Automatic annotation (TrEMBL):
Phylogenetic lineage: Bacteria, Bacillati, Actinomycetota, Actinomycetes, Micromonosporales
Keywords: Membrane, Transmembrane, Transmembrane helix
Name of this chain's protein: Uncharacterized protein
Residue spans crossing the bilayer: 12-32, 44-65, 74-96, 102-118, 123-141, 153-174
Domain of life per record: Bacteria
């Protein structure tokens, strides 16, 4: 399936369709009648030029009517044929009839060049210059024209050139405006997407803060009411886990090159303040991990570090296909894995040591 073309190309395609209609009407409605009414020397050059121009129109229309740009070889060959037809038709037209009704090819050649080279302005102007030079040169070769002849020739040249150049300029202005409008629309969409993402992120942060703060406030209220004993190991583990989760949540808002390692370091910092000897090993380069995936990856580490007694080792492995976060600590059987639909968590207890690993497979 072909990709949709940008609006700027659609403008050129639409103008080309109109140009095909203009060329066909001018050639077969006006040019053919003048070709049959006037004499040319030799006549076969004028007829050959007419047939060549008709072939160029038919070949170009095969792409233009399907709203596709003509291929480079077609444009190159068509331009050469049109310029050759310009020379042939001008040579066959008597100099006295130049720029008159018998000179059916002068204006028609310009429209053919405009049809072929509409999106190639420098080449279009160069080709029009060659065509005008051939016609004017043939006109002046018959001798010095009088004022009336010069006035007639100037009126035809200026009038025809002005209309054709105006069509080219208007087409390019419409194309440029369409391109600018498309760029503005794309920028507006990008800004809207950023605003929506920021709003979603803010709502997620509020929800996460509300959840953790709710658990922390409940803990503090129970401690204040005497419902929990701070001397009990379970209470200390609960408080350590709440502190670790809050510290990781605060770290999530920091603008750092490697958010995952930064959040793990924040979790380790809380454990070290409790006297736990924590080591962190990182392998692989930083990769883009969504916020909710980082929460699921760091959740087991936070739980293990909150329940660790004296030591813990955290390791991070990042490859092109997956991200692994593992922790080995002397948490015993107190640590529990976190469940997640996107992050696979495995846990095993070996004596007083517990190993937990969270694995996330990256989608290509």
């Amino acid at each position: 399936m072909s990709e949709p073309r940008p609006p700027a190309d659609q403008v050129i395609a639409t103008v080309r369709v109109a140009l095909v209609c203009v060329v066909a009407v001018l050639q077969f409605g006006l040019g053919l009648r003048n070709l049959l009414r006037h004499d040319y020397h030799p006549r076969f050059l004028a007829v050959g030029a007419f047939v060549a121009l008709a072939c160029v129109t038919a070949a170009t229309a095969a792409w233009v009517l399907r709203r596709r740009p003509p291929p480079e070889p077609v444009v190159a060959a068509g331009t050469a044929i049109v310029l050759a037809a310009s020379v042939a038709a001008t040579t066959a037209t008597p100099a006295a009839d130049q720029f008159g009704p018998a000179d059916w090819a002068f204006g028609l050649i310009g429209w053919h060049l405009l049809l072929l080279l509409l999106d190639r302005a420098p080449v279009l102007f160069a080709a029009l210059g060659v065509h005008f030079a051939v016609t004017v040169g043939h006109f002046l070769a018959d001798g010095v024209p009088d004022r009336v002849e010069l006035g007639t020739a100037g009126t035809v040249v200026i009038g025809t050139t002005a209309v054709q150049l105006a069509a080219a300029v208007i087409s390019h202005l419409l194309s440029r405006r369409s391109r600018e409008a498309m760029a503005l629309a794309a920028e507006r969409d990008r800004l809207a997407t950023r605003v929506l993402s920021a709003e979603q992120w803010e709502r997620g942060q509020r929800t996460a803060f509300a959840g953790h703060l709710g658990a922390t406030l409940s803990l503090l209220a129970d401690l204040a009411d005497g419902l929990l004993d701070p001397r009990k190991p379970d209470t200390r583990r609960f408080a350590a886990l709440a502190a670790t989760q809050l510290r990781r949540l605060f770290a999530e808002n920091d603008d750092v090159p490697d958010p995952l390692v930064h959040e793990l370091t924040a979790c380790a910092d809380v454990a070290e303040r409790r006297g736990v000897d924590v080591s962190l090993a990182v392998s692989g380069t930083a990769v883009d991990v969504p916020d909710h995936i980082r929460r699921d990856l760091t959740g087991p580490v936070a739980a293990a570090l909150a329940t660790a007694g004296t030591r813990a080792r955290v390791s991070v492995l990042r490859t092109d296909t997956e991200v692994r976060v593992a922790v080995v600590s002397d948490a015993g059987a107190h640590a529990t894995p976190a469940n997640s639909p996107e992050v696979n968590v495995e846990s095993g207890t070996y004596g007083q040591y517990t190993r937990m690993e969270a694995r996330w497979r990256r989608q290509s």
